[in-house]
Amino acid sequence: MLQTDEVLSTIRMLHSEHLDVRAVTLALNLNDCASPSADQMCKKVHHKIMTRASRLVEICDEVGGKYGIPVTNKRIAISPASFLLSPHGHAGALKLAQTLDEVATLCRVDFVGGFTALVQKGISAGAQVLIDSLPEVLSTTKRVCSSVNAASRKAGINMDALHQLGHVIPAIANADAANKGFAAAKLVVFANIPEDNPFMAGAYMGAGEPEAAINIGVSGPGVVGSALQRRIAAAKASNRKLTLSDLAEEIKFASFRVTRVGELIGREVAERLNTSFGIVDLSLAPTPTVGDSIGEILKTLGIAKVGAPGSTAAIAMLNDAVKKGGLFASSSVGGLSGAFIPVSEDATLADAVEQGHLVLEKLEAMTSVCSVGLDMVMIPGNTPPATIAAIMADELAIGVINNKTTATRLVPVPGCVAGDKVDFGGLFGASPVMEIRNVEASGDFVHFGGRIPAPLQSLGN
Amino acid sequence: MPKHSLIFLPDDDRGMGSESYYNTVDNGTDREMQHGYVLNVMSLDRPGIVAGVSDAISELDGNIKSCSQTVLNGYFTLIMTFSLPKKWKIAELEETILKTEGLMDCQAMIRPMDSDAPRLADQAQNIFVITAFGKDRKSIVARFSAFFAEKDINIIDLYGDLTPEGEFVLISQIEVDPSHDIRNLQLDLEEMGHELGFTVKLQHNNIFVATNRIRLD
Fold this sequence. Notes:
The structure holds 2 protein chains of 2 kinds. By secondary structure, chain A is an alpha/beta fold.
């Protein structure tokens, strides 16, 4: 039976610990918008998105109001744009991106994801058009987000695609030099891209999904961090010893409740939009707000300097406990479902970089046990394309071998060197440019090109 | 802070073990004519009151249909519905029950039960929870209850208490007809809270069910 103290603990979670629903993403299949004419295709895309999504923001606000929980981000994710682009070339890609940007503005969503190409085994004509268009598309649109899946457990790692992207990513950043290369933050390069991810910039709608679905990203690390701090303070006050198992248990409880909130909101939004409910993504996504940081949770768990020995083990425990709590709360779990460590979007991580506690290699190690990869990492603007490709290859190899999703969102900041501070503002936060050691030492490896074959683990049948 | 059962749960999943849960008992034995009563008991809290009351009803060959009990600041109160095979005069029935061993210091009030009294289960979709907390002062319950009464909003359950820090906490379940605009109610309540120096939230009941119950319907 529920008691008043449980009501009060829910109230505390909702109002003092800033529990929100981080993202409600409407995924839409646009394959039926294909057309021999680019104009016609864009018209169909405009019509379909407006028909299905024009009430998304209003409904999210209504449902959020009813339960007293804000839905922070409302988004749209589409089936891969590359599927529509092969007959239309560069001009068609630009036109589609502009249409998506316009329609996102009309629907009042902050981003539309799915300007996506799947190239893990090879690059199709449509995918090539899309990749080539990225510098112009991402620097001239505001709300379009892109992703490229360049590796998978079944296909291995497409090094040719990564080599191309090693050139494309700095080109995107340079095309948006006035904004310190911010446009590059709207591109994620994946291994094992999830088909139902609600989080940007990597959200897109996969081929096996229904016509439309609502996918939910749950609240951030603030709730989990507060629960841990409260538990530790209570143990101190009563002089009781706490172990890491106790703290893992506390994370599970917090995650259970947070997941339930996400699912409650998601199911009602889906019902009101006459759309199927997809998944709840159990990722803890930080924001630059103080108290909403994965880095702070690591500190609460006793890692005084994020990046110090123990950081990987601590985040592994956090990630696992969040999943265990969330999995029991909902049978519709999917997406990325892992703690994110996006450097600029997490004030404590950015600070750890600035203090020299957290280096690229340690960050990479941490991503082998959590989500999602080298995320929102600023790198020097003059980093050679082959080195960028090799950084991506390393990160994607972690995903391919360990059967998990990994990704990179790298911003080569034009004109900046390691240590320079870059501030993107808002949810994207600020971070120093990270140092890359051993630059220009991976060129020959990358230039071999081809595909790193699918690993032994792919042959599970 | 004493624990008080507050959140409405649908019929098929009532809680376990607590004397304070809203319980329905129906063993199907009373197909012949029965007479329903509602009993309210108040007393200083001590062990044995529920035992005394239920013993008294057993002695009268009665059957308890539902009951809810709580203790507030050391005072016990119980509301119970039950049926009896014979019709009683109310004053006699009260006297008979209070004569039972162990109930001498209790106050009791009984009235015949109206079988048309509304049951909560029908309105689950319309149940909201209001929580208000702030520095204690006079008229908090009066102001909020007047607000709801004026709008013809029914209070289903109400709990209020002082925290050790001197904060008054008010939690109430209310039944809000769908014709009300929730956003406007929230804004009005927040404004009233602001005037009183209170933080006020109005949220649908299901958020508390979802975050606290293991099994959802």
